[in-house]
């Protein structure tokens, strides 16, 4: 089963308990019971965490998430407590750390789509639906939907696919009230982010959020990374043309190389993917830094 080509050993820091090594983030708990999320430069594709890292990627994702938390604060609270680097942590953690409230997480990927592409396009071409929601005929790759839709997915372990599920299935899993909260909050946050991005020349095609609650509380809290190129599809507004794949500010350049003859890799086989060539690393990093610059109005230093 795909996963890590080589799973890294967790960094040991006095006062922190290592909880989990994810595709991109390492998760710890501090002595106050808070979570410490550390964004690495790892990158994944086709359910593999690749052997090559993308320089600065972890810092870009962290800083962009912090920017978005500020933009969304009046809609939904975020999980952030601080960005302080724990004492005794490696110097490399600077700019990568989010200290966060420990939440009871909702076991659903809260996905919002404003445009048709990816797994939604495949389902639409087969059934004229996305997550069981009927859509009008005549849509193509990149079409803007009549209105944004909530298309949840189950959360998968490293090396496994998230699976799209119906709203009714979410209601069965988490309860009707929580499902309604998830849908309403997800679409509200997507709507705000779509408008912010559009004003900056970027189309937010779709994105996914994670939500949790403080123990015993009802209010949803936005967690993990938010509206980054890892969790969202960002397209150039001035190059948007339905009916073909769109140029995106994410790791598509990397996926394209891996699926090309140049990589020599068979993604249907058992062998792990190869190291990335420098030009692919540089092009991928450029996509991330450009998304950061356009969205925040600040060049990546």
TrEMBL record:
Coiled coil: none
Family: Belongs to the SAICAR synthetase family.
Ranges for domain SAICAR synthetase/ADE2 N-terminal: 19-268
Biological-process GO terms, alphabetical: 'de novo' IMP biosynthetic process
Top enzyme category: ligase
InterPro entries: SAICAR_synt/ADE2_N, SAICAR_synth, SAICAR_synthetase_CS
Keywords in alphabetical order: ATP-binding, Ligase, Nucleotide-binding, Purine biosynthesis
Family annotation (SUPFAM superfamilies): SAICAR synthase-like
Stated name of the protein: Phosphoribosylaminoimidazole-succinocarboxamide synthase
Taxonomic source organism: Streptomyces harbinensis
């Amino acid at each position: 089963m795909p996963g890590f080509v080589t799973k890294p050993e967790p960094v040991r820091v006095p006062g922190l308990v290592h909880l989990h090594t994810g595709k991109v983030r390492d998760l710890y708990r501090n002595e106050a019971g808070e979570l410490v999320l550390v964004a690495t430069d790892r990158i994944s594709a086709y359910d593999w965490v690749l052997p090559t890292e993308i320089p600065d990627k972890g810092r870009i994702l962290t800083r962009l998430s912090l920017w978005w938390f500020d933009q969304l604060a009046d809609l939904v609270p975020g999980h952030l407590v601080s960005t302080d680097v724990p004492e005794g942590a490696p110097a490399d953690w600077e700019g990568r750390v989010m200290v966060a409230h420990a939440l009871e997480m909702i076991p659903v990927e809260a996905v919002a789509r404003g445009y048709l592409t990816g797994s939604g396009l495949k389902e639409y071409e087969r059934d004229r639906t996305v997550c069981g929601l009927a859509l009008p005929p005549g849509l193509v790759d990149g079409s803007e939907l009549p209105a944004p839709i909530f298309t949840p997915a189950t959360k998968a372990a490293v090396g496994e696919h998230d699976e799209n599920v119906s709203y009714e299935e979410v209601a069965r899993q988490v309860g009707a009230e929580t499902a309604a909260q998830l849908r309403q909050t997800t679409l509200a946050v997507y709507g705000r982010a779509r408008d912010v991005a559009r004003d900056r020349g970027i189309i937010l095609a779709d994105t996914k959020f994670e939500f949790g609650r403080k123990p015993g509380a009802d209010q949803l809290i936005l967690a993990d990374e938010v509206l980054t190129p890892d969790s969202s599809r960002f397209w150039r507004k001035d190059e948007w043309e339905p009916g073909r794949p769109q140029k995106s500010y994410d790791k598509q350049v990397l996926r394209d190389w891996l699926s090309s003859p140049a990589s020599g890799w068979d993604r249907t086989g058992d062998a792990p993917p190869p190291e990335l060539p420098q030009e692919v690393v540089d092009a991928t990093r450029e996509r991330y830094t450009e998304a950061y610059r356009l969205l925040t109005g600040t060049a990546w230093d």
